[in-house]
Amino acid sequence: MPPNVALLEARALHARYGEIEALHGINLDVAQGSIVALLGANGSGKTTTLRALTGATRRSGSILFDKREVIGHAPEDVARLGIAHVPEGRGTLSTLSVWENLAMGAYTLTDARRTRARYEKLVAYFPWLAERREQPAGLLSGGEQQMLAIARALMMEPRLILLDEPSLGLAPIIVSRIFEILRTINRDDGVTILIAEQNAAAALALADQAYVLETGRIALSGPSHDLAGNEQIRKSYLGY
Ligand SMILES: Nc1ncnc2c1ncn2[C@@H]1O[C@H](COP(=O)(O)OP(=O)(O)O)[C@@H](O)[C@H]1O
Ligand SMILES: [Mg+2]
Questions:
Q1: Mean per-residue pLDDT over the chain, rounded
Q2: From ligand 2's centre to the CA of 150, what distance in Å?
Q3: Pairing mode of beta strands 160-164, 59-65
């Protein structure tokens, strides 16, 4: 894989809720095959950024995905292009079974054999999915629901996966497990990852590059290793 080929390039990205502008023109680059962390305090604009990228929130500016402009495309088209979104609060449907949730994620796959192959691949990452495939998703633990949400997003064979605070409300040991799986998916399947997190320490340990948002603007960006290694930055921007 050639290094530093941009898969996603956002330029002067603005987003608003009615009269209120929440993103004030951000620039964001995600290299193909990389893991990028989007950090920042509660309310800084992480969720809005991810939603603006998929078109779930009104946005303007430019978003090139694999050199193609996606602004003007509906969220379903963006999904078809290969961007999967694991939303804040997971978005799994609690009354549907584990399998039904996964099948929903495969809606961009038209071929049943391919869907089946995809399912087998995900069971290798999350073996418990097979054991619990008939159970309602609502009976799963918080960590399992997060894993199901990730597995569901991976069903459509995305090139880029957007994750919105996957660690939220989970015990550190569960977060480590989930991040380890994300690392494996990135390394072995070449899935590029953009992960929004308030857990800066864990996200920086996972990511190659990081952006820090402050009230809808990029306050800081750079290689994760540099940010994590700078005590001043850690204290002023990352809260640890
Ligand atoms: N649905 C909404 N309607 C109006 N304002 C919103 C909405 N969602 C978020 N905001 C505002 O946009 C800003 C960014 O929020 P958000 O993207 O959710 O931040 P984060 O994910 O970093 O916590 C905040 O000021 C928040 O109050
Ligand atoms: Mg959020």
A1: 94
A2: 17
A3: unpaired
